[in-house]
Amino acid sequence: MHEVGLVAELVDAAVARAAGRPVSLIRVRHATTIPDDVLRQAFEMLTEGGPLAAAELVAEPFEVLLTCPCGFDGALGHDDVVGPGLAVCPSCSEMRTVAREAEMELLEVRLAL
Ligand SMILES: [Zn+2]
Fold it and tell me: CA within 20 to 30 Å of 81's CA: 36, 57, 61, 96, which one?
């Protein structure tokens, strides 16, 4: 479950940015290889009882795309990505490299008024 580690980093970054002030909203960008429900579950688990417990999570998904010599050209799913920058083509099952983009990125930490 490397997703939980990614969300933990995100929560740490948001807590640092808030610097003790109450947070109303967190906006993140995440690859669709991290399912939305997994992201939300991990966020709830990691923020429970902390300074972000009341913060709303707004997630903006983006797709990880692969163009393979076999002709596959499309978005990858959670099980296709096997590591940073590495994926298994869903069509021919060959190991391929994909653009290494941050799977999760903190876009905004909105402070409560
Ligand atoms: Zn292929």
Answer: 57
pLDDT tens-digit map of 34-70: 889 999 999 999 999 988 999 999 999 999 999 999 9
Question: 91 CA to middle of ligand 1, Å?
Answer: 5
On whether the CB atoms of residues 31 and 62 are closer than 8 A, the answer is yes
* 62: CATH: 3.30.2320.50
Rounded CA-CA distance 74/77 in Å is 10
Tell me if 8 sits within 8 A of 47, measured CB to CB: no
Contact 37, 44 (CB under 8 A): no
Count of the separate structural domains present in the chain: 1
Residue-level pLDDT at 18: 93
32 lies in which domain range? 2-111
Residue 1 has pLDDT above 70, yes or no: no
CA of 70 to the centre of ligand 1 (A): 4
How many whole angstroms from 96 Cα to the centroid of ligand 1? 8
